[in-house]
Amino acid sequence: MKVYTIKYYFKSNRGQLVPINYRSNLTSFLHNKILKNDPEIHNDVSLYSISDLFNSTKTVDNKLEFNNGAIWLIRTPSVEVFKTIYLNSKNVISSDFGFGLTLDDVSYSVDDFQDKIYDISLNTSPVFLGNNRDSEVRDHITYKHGIELTSTHLKRILKNKASKLGVNLDDRDFDLYFDENKNINVKPVKYKNILNFTTKGSLKFKGDGEVLSLIYGLGLGLSTGCGFGFCFNIKL
Questions:
Q1: Fewer CB atoms inside 10 A, N or C side of the chain?
Q2: Are residues 100 and 134 in the same domain?
């Protein structure tokens, strides 16, 4: 299965600072300017994942400075979603993102994972697994809930998204869990003034190339269309 990565280049005004909590501005740019609130793509299940802005970033007074411009990635295993987002993105070059950032160029690349068994570590942006349904209070699931519960949720969410692409996954065909032998922690992330408790750390994956392609394109956990669970470059 192929995975499509769209790469955005933003020009910046030197010295212009971007607020730490800019993520809602990023999703607004995506939904309003690129997707134009297309209900086929912007719905309750995101068949794509997005990264945060990056590129030689430094923090100044609790804000971000992108003196060399900013880079942003959108990734999907769906050729239909890719075509829509990419073509729409080409039409909004020169659009203003805000905070001194202007979209300057858009490109894409394609990855195709081999048909073999992979046994690797995954690094992602903070993974959000939502609320623990077995709890009577607001209790966001993190690695502290244990491998069994978190692995079940990671797999369930991935299977649900895969089914939207016509792919039926079986829990028994792959392993996916947080690696508690490496640095791992609970990270509170505020999005639109709502505090979400996420897990930041490495994950272990063992399975075939098709499942890995889905993870790489769709991300892990919930709200991947808001920057959570974005899978960074996989070292094979």
A1: C
A2: no
The string of pLDDT tens digits covering residues 117-144 is: 999 999 999 999 998 766 555 689 999 9
35 and 124 housed in the same domain: no
Torsion sign across C-alpha atoms 81, 6, 42, 84: negative
Q: What's the pTM value of the predicted model, to 2 decimals? A: 0.94
Residues 212 and 137 in one domain: yes
Per-residue pLDDT tens over the stretch 148-173: 999 999 999 999 999 999 999 999 99
Tell me if 203 sits within 8 A of 177, measured CB to CB.
yes
